[in-house]
Design goal:
The chain is mainly α. The protein is built from 7 helices and no strands.
Length: about 170
């Protein structure tokens, strides 16, 4: 296990991996100049190649117009880059691979419903919103990962009680 200094010193590599691994493209028309110096408004959100390949012909058939130009679907993205903040995660390779596979499936599903492209921040935000709404399952996954026996009803009670308190504090 790497020590804390190695973890902190490797942030740039993690960010690069994060952008490569999930096909992050945080450019949109409201962001101004992109990282490469070009105007982000000139480029559409670019999904990662794995997602596009997984979506297959269904995505291109349903999103291609008669002149061959893809319809980007509803406004991309539904929230501006400025509304986000970078946070890091430490995950095992297998978990990261599963998330990439999930992103491909999500891309295909969204394409089917008229949203052929979405930004990495949209995907990441959606994943975290789902996790936040399913705290009981997250706690159970941690306990099961450590082979700890637990009472599911008690777990649901604890998470529910804390969720209610959080709602009252807002």
């Amino acid at each position: 296990m790497p020590d804390e200094d190695e973890r902190i010193g490797d942030i740039a590599a993690q960010l690069e991996q994060s952008e490569d691994g999930l096909g992050v493209d945080d450019s949109d028309a409201d962001d101004g100049p992109g990282v490469d110096g070009t105007d982000a408004g000139d480029a559409a959100a670019d999904p990662d190649p794995d997602s596009e390949a997984a979506a297959g012909d269904a995505a291109s058939d349903s999103s291609a117009s008669t002149d061959g130009v893809r319809d980007p679907g509803p406004e991309i993205p539904p929230f501006p880059f400025e509304a986000t903040e970078m946070h890091g995660f430490y995950v095992r390779d297998g978990t990261w691979d599963d998330l990439r596979t999930t992103k491909s499936a999500v891309s295909a599903a969204c394409s089917t419903f008229g949203v052929p492209e979405f930004t990495g921040r949209e995907f990441q935000d959606a994943c975290l919103r789902v996790a936040a709404d399913h705290g009981e399952e997250v706690a159970a996954a941690i306990l099961e990962g450590r082979s700890v026996e637990f009472d599911e009803e008690r777990l649901a009670e604890i998470v529910g009680m804390l969720r209610e308190q959080r709602g009252e504090d807002d």
